[in-house]
Amino acid sequence: KSKFNGIGFGNDHDKTSSYQLAKVLKTHKINVFEAKGKKFKYYVPLKQKKSRLIKAIFDSNTKFEDSLFYDVSAWTMPYAFNLPFAELNNRAFNNDLLGTQFDGTMKSEGQVIGSRSRYAYAFEWDEYYAPRALYRLLEAGAKAKVATLQFSGVTSTGERNFDYGTILVPMGIQEDEMEVHNIISEIAAEDNIKVYALNTGLSSRGIDLGSNNFSNIRKPSVAVIGGEGTNAYEIGEMWHLMDQRYQMPLSIIDKKDFSGADLDRYTVIIMTGYNYNDLSNGAVDGLKDWVREGGVLLTMKQGVQWAARQELADVEFISDDQDEEEEIETRPYVKQSADRGAQVIGGTIFNAVLDLTHPLGYGFNDSDITVFRNSTIFMEKGENPYSTPLYYADNPLASGYISDENEETIAGTAAIVVSRYGGGKVIAMTDNPNFRAFWYGTNKLFANSIFFGPNIRGNSGN
C-alpha cells in the first residue's frame, strides 16, 4: 500500500555518520544495502519484514491529535544524522541500485593520497571523526592551520578544490617531521579521513598555502561548569562525545570550587542549561576576566540567559508575553494545565540555515540542516550581520509537535549568536547539539566551537 518501494540515505561527505545510521537499522534486523551508484551511500528496500518500522524510522510527522507529550515528539532518524534521504517510488528504486548487503562493519575509506610530502598535508573537515584526527595531531605537538577561504591544491591525482575549514599541516614548521608523517598515516586509516599530500604552495584558485587566511589552531583545553543545579544530562552527553568519540579530555569544575579554579589552563569553558545564579561574585568576575583575556565561553539554553544577565552575551530574547494592546481571551479554569502543556517544546526537529563560511559552519556541505530543540528560549538575530551563523528557517518545523504560536515565534530567529567580550567570545546556543548521544548531525557545531571559536574574528561578534 506504500507509495514508495525503498529509501536511499547517506553520502560520501560524511561516511561515518552514514555508517552509524546503517548500523542502527541493522541492529533492528533491517536489511540495508550498500549503494552501487553515488547519489546515496545506502539503500533500504521496503519489501521486508520490518517495513512498518522502516517507515516509522524515516517518517516525518507534524500533525498530532494531542498537544501534550511526555517526552520527545519526533524520532526521524536521518534528521538526527543530518543526512540526505529520499523515499523512492517504483521508477526511482530497483534492485540495480543495490550492492552488497551491509554486514555492520565499518570499512574505512581513509587513505593518504600521494607519496610522503615534505611540504604539507591537507584534509577536509567533513568527516565525523575529523575533530579526533586534528586533536591527535595537536596533542602530539604538531602545528596545524585552518583555511578560512576556499583554495585549490595540486595532489597526485591532479588539482583538487578544498573547502572552508580544510586543515593544513605544513611540514616545514614541524619539530618532528617523521612523527607527523606517522600520525597522518594513522588518522587516515583510523579516523576514515582522506589526507592529501601537497607538494607546492601555489594555488590556481583561491588562497596560496602561505596566505594569512590560514589561521593557526591552538590545542583546545576544555572545561564545563558542573555541580548542583547544572544539567547533568547535558554534561554527560558532551563528556561522552569528547571522551568516547573524540578521545579528548573534559574537565568538570564544580560551581562551588569555581572561584578557586585556575582558568588560564583552559581555552574553552562551557555552561549548559539550568541554574548558575549561585555563582559567587568572585567567580563571576574571574570568568569575565578570563573571557576578556581571550577565552571562549560556550553557553547553551539557560546558560545563555545567565550570560546575558551578566552582560557577557550580547543577545536579545523574544518574549512570549502577550501584547498589551491585544485583546485578552478568557479560558475555562480546567484547561489551564493543558494550555500550558501545549506550549512546551519537549523535543522537536527544526529546519535551520547555516553559514558555511563561518568557523562554526566548517565541515557542513549544505546550508540547510536539521536541529533538535527542547526549550522555549527564543533569541533575536544579532545586530551585527555576521554574528548569527545559524538561524531557524522561515518554515521551521521538520518533524514533531509545536504549537501554532511557537512556530510563528521561532521562524527566522537565531539558533546561535556570537558576542565579543574584550578579547574573547561568547557563543550562545539555544539548543543542545549533543542530545542523548544519538544526535550526530550537530556534534560538529559543538566541535567547531571548541576548535575554531578562538579563530572567530572579533569584529564579527555582537
| Average pLDDT over all residues | 93
Structural class: alpha+beta
Quote the beta fraction: 15-25%
Give the strand tally: 22
Outline the structure in words:
The protein is α+β, with helices and mostly antiparallel strands. It is built from 11 helices and 22 strands. It has helices at 15-27, 51-58, 77-80, 130-139, 177-190, 232-245, 281-292, 302-309, 336-342, 404-410, 443-452, and strands spanning 6-9, 33-35, 42-45, 85-88, 98-101, 111-113, 120-123, 145-147, 151-155, 158-162, 167-170, 194-198, 214-216, 222-226, 251-254, 268-271, 296-300, 348-354, 368-373, 390-399, 414-421, 424-429. A 9-stranded mixed β-sheet has the order 15-14-16-17-22-21-20-18-19. Helix 4 (130-139) packs antiparallel against helix 5 (177-190). The longest helix is centred in the middle third of the chain and has 14 residues, at 177-190.
How would you sum up this structure in a few lines?
This protein is of the alpha+beta class.
Any chance you could write out the topology, listing elements then pairs?
Elements: E1 6-9, H1 15-27, E2 33-35, E3 42-45, H2 51-58, H3 77-80, E4 85-88, E5 98-101, E6 111-113, E7 120-123, H4 130-139, E8 145-147, E9 151-155, E10 158-162, E11 167-170, H5 177-190, E12 194-198, E13 214-216, E14 222-226, H6 232-245, E15 251-254, E16 268-271, H7 281-292, E17 296-300, H8 302-309, H9 336-342, E18 348-354, E19 368-373, E20 390-399, H10 404-410, E21 414-421, E22 424-429, H11 443-452
Parallel strand pairs: 6-12, 14-15, 14-16, 16-17, 17-22
Antiparallel strand pairs: 1-3, 1-4, 2-3, 2-5, 7-11, 7-12, 8-11, 8-13, 9-10, 18-19, 18-20, 20-21, 21-22
